[in-house]
Each structure stands twice: as C-alpha cells, then as structure tokens.
Design goal:
single chain; 117 residues; mainly beta; seven-stranded mixed β-sheet
Length: 117
C-alpha cells in the first residue's frame, strides 16, 4: 500500500505562484511515476505533470512553461511549482503514484487551488 499526503493549495491572485507538495510512503516500487492531476467542477480529471523514478517528465500543453514538477528521491516527495497562475488553473489538484508493474494508480485526497482576484 502506498499513501500520498498533499499540501500547499490555497487562494492566489492571477499571475501569482503556488507550490504543491506530496509525500509518498509505504510500499513504493523502484520503477514508478509520481504526478499531479487536476479536476475542475464539471470537468474530467486531467494530467498536469508527471515525473518518473528515472527523472523523465511530461506536462500538459496548458501548463508548459509555467509549471515545473520535481522530486526529492530521498524524501519520496514530489513538488509542483506553479507560476503565472490563471483563473482556468482553478481546480482540485490530486497527487498520483503509478506502479509500472501493473499501471495501478494511487490517488491522494486532493488539495484545492483557486486563482481569483
């Protein structure tokens, strides 16, 4: 079992920045990915950014150049630095852990990010 605990959401003005953190614990397989998804009201959950255990990253087109995902392997923690935030970035952000043995995904509970003036 893998557990994920997110932190760092909140209210920010357009153009502002936030950093999300997610600490993973439990039975973490050596080959895996940690990532962030988001879901706005009425929308499906979508990928924001993901980083593999080998350090490869992938971003949604809508956040490229504004968001950066990183990880601290010693702490099993993944971060999402969000800059130049827009109102359309408002959503619940979920941390994810993907086990590449079976592609099972474990989700965090989510953290609200609201971009509004």
């Amino acid at each position: 079992q893998v557990q994920l605990v997110e932190s760092g959401g909140g209210l920010v003005q357009p153009g502002g920045s936030l950093r999300l953190s997610c600490a993973a614990s439990g039975s973490i397989f050596m080959i895996h990915a940690l990532g962030w998804y988001r879901q706005a009201p009425g929308n499906q959950r979508e990928l924001v950014a993901i980083i593999t255990s080998g350090g490869s990253t992938n971003y949604a087109d809508s956040v490229k150049g504004r968001f950066a995902i990183s990880r601290d392997n010693a702490q099993n923690t993944v971060y999402l630095q969000m800059n130049s935030l827009k109102p359309e970035d408002t959503a619940v952000y979920y941390c994810s852990y993907t086990d590449f043995r079976n592609n099972d995904i474990v989700w965090g509970r989510g953290t609200q990010v609201t971009v509004s003036s």
